[in-house]
Q: What sequence folds into this?
């Protein structure tokens, strides 16, 4: 898939996430729970696809990106474990604290994703420049 296709897919998915989160406040709890579970399954599937791609392309991507993927996978696993552990707590203060923490985590995750988009833009522009330079060198040499 072309780089521009990946960026288009990213933009569309970010818009979809924005719309789903905005709609969540007016949904019934049962529907919201279904959406949460669906989003979790989709995130796990995407993470697995990313991990498979990183492993398959290990020779084709920088060590930094391979390490970043591993770090992200470990981070997500920890978050899931933490969320699962807290689901059983019913005490009001704990529930409020957990909601505040979940909201802050969601904000940070969005900021992290934004930083990833910025990095993707830089990487895409640099890749385009590197290809342009390679083509120029190839044309000069013959």
A:
């Amino acid at each position: 898939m072309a780089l521009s296709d990946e960026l288009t897919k990213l933009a569309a998915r970010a818009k979809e996430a924005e719309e789903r989160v905005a709609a969540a406040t007016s949904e019934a709890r049962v529907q919201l729970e279904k959406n949460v579970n669906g989003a979790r399954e989709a995130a796990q599937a995407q993470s697995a696809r990313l991990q498979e791609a990183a492993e398959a392309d290990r020779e084709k991507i920088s060590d930094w990106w391979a390490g970043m993927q591993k770090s992200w996978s470990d981070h997500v696993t920890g978050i899931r474990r933490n969320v699962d552990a807290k689901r059983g707590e019913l005490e009001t203060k704990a529930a409020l604290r957990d909601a505040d923490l979940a909201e802050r985590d969601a904000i940070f995750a969005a900021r992290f994703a934004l930083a990833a988009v910025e990095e993707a833009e830089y990487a895409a522009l640099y890749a385009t420049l590197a290809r342009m330079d390679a083509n120029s060198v190839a044309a000069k040499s013959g």
Observations:
- The chain has a mean pLDDT of 83.
- The first helix runs from residue 3 to 24.
